[in-house]
Amino acid sequence: MFATKRKPAKKPIITKNKFANLTKKDWAESNESSTENRDISGLTYRDVYRR
Question: Is residue 29 helix, strand or coil?
Fold first, then answer.
């Protein structure tokens, strides 16, 4: 149909992993903060799926 064909845009490659340098203490702090901030309902994965 058209005279020119466009190639699809490539996804950018992430060269740096921001999670690679986290320590166990960092993971524990992030998990603790995420369990405290569960909006109004406070539902967890286990509450929903009973697993």
Answer: helix
